[in-house]
Amino acid sequence: MAIGDVYKMTAVFDSSISAKTLTFGIHVRQDQAVWAPQPPMSLFYDWWDAGLGGEPAQKTFHSSDNDLTNIQIRRVQPLEPVLVDSIETFPSAGTGTAATSYSPASATLVSLRTANIGRHYRGRAFLPPPDEADAAGNIVEASAINMAQNFENLRTGLAGVTVGVTLVIFSPANGAWAGAVTPVSSVMVDRRIRTQRRRQSVAVYVTP
Questions:
Q1: Does residue 1 form part of some domain?
Q2: Mean per-residue pLDDT, 168-175
């Protein structure tokens, strides 16, 4: 472990409707010489289970069909074949109580932006589907703003002294962008309900 190493943290969800597993990951860069993998995973868990900075927990925006069952971390630059599991209490189920029901293939999209322009400097995180929408079929605006602020608080919290990492966009692919690491400077949540990892209509983003 050394300053500048890049790790991928992955949240693992199980859907009781589809009996399938959904995962999404974020990359972090080690910024302190004295560092341990559990603190960033604990903050990631709190983002879901408790909420950060006074915002509602992320799980309040998802139905009980979605269980967070694990958080894992692995060093990806330089790559090593060691996967570390979080010691938090699992599972942690969604607590949303709205009557709306979406396909398990639906998703809540968080867009990760940097100070640079271009698609290589942007990232996406596909969360479980939301538990409600407004009359137009979009995520309720107030809920989307709360989600965006909660994720922003995760971004800033990761850089804290007790955690010591920076949320980044990491390009592991071969070519000119291989190994590029760029700090995330802002986050947005798309109010449109998405399908995991597929392009759709124009986004309706909100910011914290």
A1: no
A2: 76
